[in-house]
Amino acid sequence: MSRRHTRQVRLAEVGADGQGRIARAAVDVHGRGLAAQVAARYLAGAGVARLRVGDEGVAAAARGIDASVRVEVDASLAVDRADAPAEIADPTARALATGALAALRAIREALGSTT
Fold it and tell me: Which of 24, 37, 45, 103 is least crowded, fewest Cβ atoms below 10 Å from its Cβ?
């Protein structure tokens, strides 16, 4: 475990076992643009082992956070799949929220959490 993830390990919801599951996780990031870049950056920062992303811009965002994350580009993932929060009117804020929520869902899945 890297020093980067010590705060996550201290969280009861994650712990050392959870961080280990995150570190072994392979996650697909659907979409392109800001929402996908936010999701990829959060996931790389959380310490996932591998990301498959829809385009090179998203890959660059993830690599900029942690060069040790294996990032693969698969154009079939460039289609948006995440639901944007309807109550957020500003398009930039919606994209940021969408990306953050997608990353959170992926982390919860890696942890085996249903909440």
Answer: 24
- Whole-number pLDDT of residue 59: 96
Q: pLDDT by residue (tens digit) across 63-89? A: 999 888 999 999 999 987 767 777 888
Which of 31 and 13 is assigned the larger pLDDT? 31
Sheet harboring 70-73: ordered strands across?
Answer: 26-29, 50-53, 70-73
Contact between residue 106 and residue 27 where contact means Cβ atoms under 8 Å apart: yes
Backbone φ, ψ for residue 71 (5° rounding) = -120, 125
Report angle CA 68, 72, 76 to the nearest 5 degrees.
155
Please say whether the beta carbons of 82 and 101 come within 8 A.
yes
Tell me how far apart the alpha carbons of residues 102 and 95 are, in angstroms, rounded to a whole number: 11
CB 29 within 8 A of CB 43: yes
Distance from C-alpha of 68 to C-alpha of 84, rounded to nearest angstrom: 30
Q: 114 pLDDT band (50/70/90 cuts)?
A: low
